[in-house]
Model the fold of this input.
Amino acid sequence: MNILFIILFSIIGLIALVILLAIISKKEYEISRNIVINKPVEEVFSYIKFLQNQNYYNKWWMFDPHAKKGFRGTDGTIGFVATWDSQNKQAGAGEQEITNITLNKRLDTEIRFFRPFKNTAHIYMLTESTGANQTKVTWVFTGKNKVPMNLMNSMISKMLGKDFEESIQNLKNIVEKNE
Done:
């Protein structure tokens, strides 16, 4: 009987510890990567402001070539929405909407995930001239997870960070090839 109480109290203690950690852990996360592209800021920005171009550099958009993709509005303008619906559980379904554009400086989007989980996050891309033919691009993804999912924030940041690095390198390669 004593062993059962020890096991039961150990399990209860472990559950309480996990709940306590989730409550005190940060709910917000931010992933950021940057790269210098050897092209003028106007050329770089004119490429990234079109969400449909993400089909060529964003690892997530390229993840499932069979996903159903849809578009509403005029790409490269506020209010444009790109949607995806994939049978692949990792890709899921959702949409991304352009929410703000500051010409040659910043593109803001809101991304809404519907499946495999519901969540909303914000993405922005900053462009900054670092020379006549050089542009620093900073890509930032911010979001918030509820308790207890917030315990996964550091793992999510590491996984998504690798995807961001690959995607931003793809962007550099494509934009620098364009003549």
